[in-house]
Amino acid sequence: MVRCALRDGRREGGSRCPGPGPSGGVGIALRQEGRTAVTVADGRTHPGTGHGGGAAGRGEGADGEGGTGTGFVFDTQGHIVTNNHVVADAVDGGKVTATFPSGKKYDAEVVGHAQGYDVAVIKLKNAPSDLKPLTLGDSDKVAIGDSTIAIGAPFGLSNTVTTGIISAKNRPVASSDGTGSSASYMSALQTDASINPGNSGGPLLDAQGNVIGINSAIQSTGSGGLGGTAQSGSIGLGFAIPINQAKYVAQELIKDGQPVYAKIGASVSLEESTDGAKITDQGAGGAAAVEAGGPAAKAGLKPGDVITKLDDTVIDSGPTLIGEIWTHKPGDKVTLTYERDGKTHTVDLTLGSRKGDS
């Protein structure tokens, strides 16, 4: 399980999301001057890349704070997909501005955001009629060793393209805002393409220029933080949300502004573990750990059971289980392997649904 901190780039467990860039540049972290930037790649052929141009955006929260990041054109209506932590502080009455490589600027608004998935959608106001969306690939067909291309504005260097390979698939990554109050979970694509402050929310492409993921986090050996001078860079361990998952989330956000999460209807421990995801004795706020009438209850799961596999994926902790569940859609049928009283059991269940972040 890889853990990283969102928004201010603080380290948690030795890893972090790409943090703030230098003044005037782009990054994901809140910056003290209250600005936000989003670098948006589109489907136009851009000199020097051959895969897409970019656009930088700025936004401001209602309280004057802002954040920075990257995104890409999702459709011809002007929807831009990025990370939730890039625009989270512009959600309630905040301002977002997108600036394309040509220098053209557009005001934008947050259409919807999913804190758990760490995906958000913004929409350009008065979007141009000639927008070129990036072509979406199929992240399920990505293989370890496949070539990758990352587009973004690391440390403020707009339209930067870096290359690498897929180093691993289904890498569990847990992210938070540093306080533990806003957690995001993903079963990520891992790449050694250089990803630095300013890349967060940008597209990870395959060799044909198709989007296969959204760059979201990096493992880092440095510290650094909000307003600090120390900026940690790539050590070849970057993580991206698979595009198949991100596409589903974006479509839900565009449809009604809220995310939909698959669930098993049971609370699991979020503590560090290598043994599996243990169903807790009590749920959040004193609620039952196993939701009455929910999928887990119908399958006979009880507090104290330790889930060790979901289908063929090994589950080593609660965050890993959550991230793997969220790669599925409500209504999907899965097989859980769990341990109870020293014995191993398997059970089939149909995933339920939860709408919105809570």
Offer a quick outline of the entry.
It is built from four helices and 22 strands. It is mostly beta strands. It has two domains: 1-257, Beta Barrel (Thrombin, subunit H); 260-355, PDZ domain (Pdz3 Domain, Roll).
Question: Could you characterize what this model shows?
Answer:
The chain has 358 residues and is mainly beta. It folds into 2 domains: 257 residues, Beta Barrel (Thrombin, subunit H), CATH 2.40.10.120; 96 residues, PDZ domain (Pdz3 Domain), CATH 2.30.42. The protein is built from 4 helices and 22 strands. The strands form 4 sheets. The chain has a 7-stranded mixed barrel.
The secondary-structure class comes to mainly beta
The CATH architecture of the largest domain is Beta Barrel
Radius of gyration: 20 Å
The averaged pLDDT comes out at 79
Q: What is the fold named in CATH at topology level of the largest domain?
A: Thrombin, subunit H
Unreliable spans are 5-35, 45-65, 223-230
Helix count, DSSP H or I runs of 4 or more residues:
4
